Amino acid sequence: MENKDVEKAAIDSCVFDNGIFNPELTPYYVQGFKSGAEWRIRSVWHEVKDGLPEEGKMVLCETLCGVLIGGPGKITGDLVREFGIRRWAYVEDLMPGKEVGI
């Protein structure tokens, strides 16, 4: 997304009560939108040092070389070392409301 796209999305998402909008608050809308988006992204990712995913769930793993999708098996310490997994997220948390199957 470019800055103009972020600003438009922020303003669009912050217009309340049938279009009441204060242009003087635009920088606050934009910063709040960006902060909320960053928080949401960070909230679904888990560091491997803090634990491994529940068995039987689809996960997206960030590795030293890229990303991989795993599951619905079990991510073990051996797999973490073999693939260089740094952090992981449940696919269902990345795509709320979507059923994920294999």
Report on this model:
The protein is of the alpha+beta class. It is built from 4 helices and 4 strands; from the N terminus they run ααβββαβα. Strands 1-4-2-3 form a 4-stranded antiparallel β-sheet. Strand 2 (59-63) and strand 3 (67-70) form a beta hairpin. The longest helix is centred in the middle third of the chain and has 19 residues, at 26-44. It starts with a helix and ends in an 8-residue tail after the last helix. The mean pLDDT is 80.
**Unreliable spans:** none
Radius of gyration: 18 Å
Residue fraction in strands: 15-25%
Straight-line N-to-C gap: 30 Å
Biggest β-sheet description: 4 strands, antiparallel
Cross-sheet strand order for the largest sheet: 1-4-2-3
Number of helices, counting only DSSP H or I runs of 4 residues or more: 4
Overall mean pLDDT: 80
Structural class: alpha+beta
Overall morphology? elongated
> What's the total count of β strands?
4
Query: Helical content, roughly?
Result: 40-55%
- Note the run of SSEs as H and E: HHEEEHEH
